[in-house]
């Protein structure tokens, strides 16, 4: 038991990758090192967030607007810079693409080791920061294809099935890192006394069905009729609870562990929804599928959607397989089950 607990206490994300791949081959070493770097970025961001209100640069806005036209929070830029700095000296990643950057950031030195690309949303849900509610980071790792000499990063604008790893960090009551390299979904909890993410749960499986539905009902007026019909159905059917934190990672994490469904449908103002495919929906879809769940645009699997541009948005219906199937039935015009 002693040996087991010591092993568990030292099971960090980078060590876990080697265990999962059961290999010390270069590819496994690369992924292990990348996960170690992501853990470092997460620790730096977590530490900064914990000082919100005490030090400058955490709360509030920069006064600028990003490519999405959204006002940029100081924390968005800080977290984006953390990822760049952590990976710049890694020799592992050639490009970083993020919600905060119009174009990918190219690591100037040519990459001697890996030719990987990191796609990430450095701080998702940043509107929650000023009210001390949970926020998250979302990331996906892809293998670079071709030489991208024209720096158009066209090899990035491809379906989510091309992802080789994905995960998120939840800065909540505790800071958790959840990831998958395609063999199960695993969670780690940051132990501040160690300064390490320690393995918490392996092979997380989402329940087949859950009673939680997570959607911003303030958008009801601008949804298509089938989505309105679905929400009216859950309003009149026992067994459902509404939970919406306003930050995707926290809302997703609850669904992953307890089951249910998160919805961000298209609307009048945003026909393709608000959430981004390549660094929000696709990484979470990768995770939920490896946890036995489903993620749909409403008409097809998120991971099969063929994007045409880097910051493309898609609607998102993600969670327990039975819940996603139920919403798809409404979208296909099938009568409500009752
Ligand atoms: P709404 C946060 O701004 C975010 O990008 C996601 O984290 C979250 O799920 C969504 O937008 C919330 O959007 O329109 O409900 O406020």
From TrEMBL:
PROSITE patterns, A to Z: FBPASE
Pathway as given in its UniProt record: Carbohydrate biosynthesis; Calvin cycle
Principal subcellular localization: cytoplasm
Keywords of the record: Calvin cycle, Carbohydrate metabolism, Cytoplasm, Hydrolase, Magnesium, Metal-binding
Binding-site positions, Mg(2+) 2: 121, 124, 280
Protein family (similarity comment): Belongs to the FBPase class 1 family.
Name recorded for this polypeptide: Fructose-1,6-bisphosphatase class 1
Organism name: Rubidibacter lacunae KORDI 51-2
């Amino acid at each position: 038991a002693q040996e087991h607990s010591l092993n568990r206490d030292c099971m960090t994300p980078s060590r876990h990758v080697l265990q999962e791949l059961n290999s010390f081959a270069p590819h496994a070493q690369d992924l292990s090192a990348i996960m170690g770097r992501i853990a470092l970025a997460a620790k730096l961001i977590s530490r900064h967030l914990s000082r919100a209100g005490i030090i400058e640069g955490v709360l509030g806005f920069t006064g600028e607007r990003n490519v999405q036209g959204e006002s940029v929070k100081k924390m968005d830029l800080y977290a984006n810079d953390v990822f760049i700095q952590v990976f710049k000296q890694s020799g592992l990643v050639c490009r970083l693409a993020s919600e905060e950057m119009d174009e990918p950031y190219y690591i100037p030195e040519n990459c001697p080791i890996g030719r990987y690309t990191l796609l990430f949303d450095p701080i998702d849900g940043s509107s929650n920061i000023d009210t001390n509610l949970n926020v998250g980071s979302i990331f996906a790792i892809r293998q670079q294809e071709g030489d991208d000499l024209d720096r158009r990063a066209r090899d990035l604008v491809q379906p989510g099935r091309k992802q080789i790893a994905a995960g998120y960090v939840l800065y909540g009551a505790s800071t958790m890192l959840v990831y998958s390299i395609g063999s199960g979904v695993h969670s780690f909890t940051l132990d501040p006394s160690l300064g390490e993410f320690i393995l918490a749960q392996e092979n997380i499986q989402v329940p087949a069905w859950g009673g939680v539905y997570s959607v911003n009902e303030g958008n009801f007026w601008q949804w298509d009729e089938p989505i309105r019909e679905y929400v009216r159905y859950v309003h009149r059917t026992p067994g459902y609870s509404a939970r919406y934190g306003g930050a995707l990672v926290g809302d997703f994490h609850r669904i992953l562990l307890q089951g249910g469904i998160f919805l961000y449908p298209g609307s009048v103002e945003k026909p393709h929804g608000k959430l981004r495919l390549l660094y929000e929906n696709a990484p979470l879809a990768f995770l939920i599928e490896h946890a036995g769940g489903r993620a749909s645009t409403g008409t097809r699997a998120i991971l099969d959607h063929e994007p045409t541009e880097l910051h493309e948005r898609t609607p998102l219906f993600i969670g327990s397989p039975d819940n996603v199937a139920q919403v798809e039935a409404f979208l296909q015009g099938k009568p409500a089950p009752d």
